[in-house]
Amino acid sequence: MDFPDTNPYHLPEAGMKTAKPALPRILIADDQSDVLEALRLLVKGEGYQCETVNSPKAVVQALGERDFDLLLMDLNYTRDTTSGQEGLDLLSRIQALDSTLPVVVMTAWSSVELAVEAMRRGARDFVKKPWENERLAAILRNQIALGKAWREGQRLEAENQLLRGGSGPKLIAESAAMRPVLEMISRVGPSDANVLVLGENGTGKGLVARVLHSASSRANNSFVAVNMGGFSEGLFESELFGHVKGAFTDAKTDRVGRFEMADGGTLFLDEIANLTPSQQTRLLRVLETGEFERLGSSKTRRAEVRIISATNADVRAEVAAGEFRQDLLFRLNTIEIPLPPLRERREDIPLLGAHFLREHARHYRKALPTFDPAAMQALCDHPWPGNIREFDHVVERAMLMAQGTVVRVADLGLRVGSESAPRLEDMSLEEVEAHLIRKTLARCGGNAQKAAEALGLSRSAFYRRLEKYGL
Ligand SMILES: Nc1ncnc2c1ncn2[C@@H]1O[C@H](COP(=O)(O)OP(=O)(O)OP(=O)(O)O)[C@@H](O)[C@H]1O
Ligand SMILES: [Mg+2]
Q: Which ligand is the nearest neighbour of the Cα of 185?
């Protein structure tokens, strides 16, 4: 395994001979006895002790009674089912019982999504049936070594290190389109100005809110986030302003609201366009005075909070349509930070890709992979309707699917062909131009002279456009 800069694991080389007090013990679970027998032979041959069971129940029982260094388990047990649900449920149970036990799952060739879901639920790796002995043996070796390292408390050490070294959330933004965003963050971050962050779904509004907070003098106080969507009127009051015991039937104790929790810090109001008219009115009053009462109490309280809000809606259009109060918008958007969609900041894709790979590799305790050139090209060409969130999920999935340490195009699971190409009719003229330039550049191997000729542009006209689109 390699985390080049921060390898906290100090793993022994796979297969390294060290004086071991006892042979590692593996628990194998499958409902087919021929599979169990074949695996037993393999595992014994690799020099491990092993025990076999044939049901989820027996797995839980065995884990409760004895210590194991690894669990190798099938996802399907009852014959006729291939959903893997039993296996997934079992994984969740094991996570709750002992999250340090390395679990490797076995799946049929066809169930790639199932393997991904299993990894999300805590499996460390997977093998496809029918398995290759070599590969399975390598996985077992690695996972046993990793599991040991974790169990010896290295995990705590790594986490502490992270806590000590970590300095706020990481915002990746090297593209030209993100420059104004960075400038604004550094200018208004430290102030107490209210900021409204605008942008499509998954563009990083929540992250920018956290970055603003950590750049402010309030960084050591609370950052309290509250999603404004979908509160009933009563719940809205009690969530934001708190309630006292007996204020309504279920109010068994006093409760502090989000405003009070955020006192001295930052309150992040997410999805503000979802506020009902009466909630807007209520919020406006509190923002104007800084005063509120807990539900069921007449005592006036004050909280000193900085408000950062966010929405993916066109809030101005909502004001024009009479659906959002203009005076509330004025309160919220002292400063407005619009976040560009990922398709307008493609230069960030390689960096974001590396960032997410590292994060997920760390999370799943896998070796840090890299993208092969074709995979990187595919990432750069994808239209990313779901923006950075979608990108993050694709990278997560790809990392889980990758065999070895290279992520290939197939691992990305991106649909190819017309479906993934941006549709011209959905693009603005400028987007079409930028798209064409990018394509031509790629076709000409990055040679600007050739690309300019191919497009029938003079060099200077071509460079002007490169600059304009930050290419
Ligand atoms: N510039 C960035 N650098 C690194 N990670 C990012 C960046 N922007 C977004 N992310 C990550 O992408 C994911 C989506 O971002 P976030 O939740 O902030 O988006 P959002 O705009 O609030 O989405 P939604 O509209 O769905 O609420 C998060 O995991 C976030 O950490
Ligand atoms: Mg969000």
A: 1
312 pocket-lining for ligand 1 (C-beta < 6 Å): yes
Q: Is the CB of 393 under 6 A from ligand 1?
A: no
Amino acid occupying residue 419: E
Rounded Cα distance, 381 and 383, in Å? 6
pTM for the model stands at 0.64
SS3 238: helix
Q: What is the rounded distance in angstroms from the CA atom of residue 357 to the CA atom of residue 371? A: 9
Beta strand pairing call for 255-256 and 242-243? antiparallel
Is residue 11 within 8 Å of 143, Cβ to Cβ?
no
Complete DSSP assignment for 182-194: HHHHHHHTTS---
Ligand 1 centroid distance, CA of 159 (Å)? 23
Give the CA dihedral 436, 437, 441, 442, nearest 10 degrees.
-40
Q: Which ligand sits closest to the CA of 200?
A: 1
Task: Count CB atoms within 10 A of the CB of residue 433.
Answer: 15
Alpha helices in 269-386 (DSSP H): 277-289, 315-320, 326-332, 349-364, 373-381
What's the gap in Å between 339 CA and the centre of ligand 2?
12
Q: Is 202 in the pocket of ligand 1 (CB under 6 A)?
A: yes
Distance set, CA 368 to CA 48, 110, 199, 360 (Å): 27, 25, 31, 9
**Is 201 a pocket residue for ligand 1 (Cβ < 6 Å)?**
yes
Over the stretch 144-202, which tens digit does the pLDDT of each residue have?
988 887 776 654 554 454 444 446 688 899 899 999 999 888 888 888 899 999 999 99
Mutate which of 388, 392, 394 for ligand 1? The one with the most ligand atoms within 8 Å of its CB, which is: 388
One-letter amino acid of 226? V
Decide: residue 448, CB within 10 A, 0-12 exposed, 13-18 middle, 19+ buried: middle
Say yes or no: CB of residue 309 within 6 Å of ligand 1: no
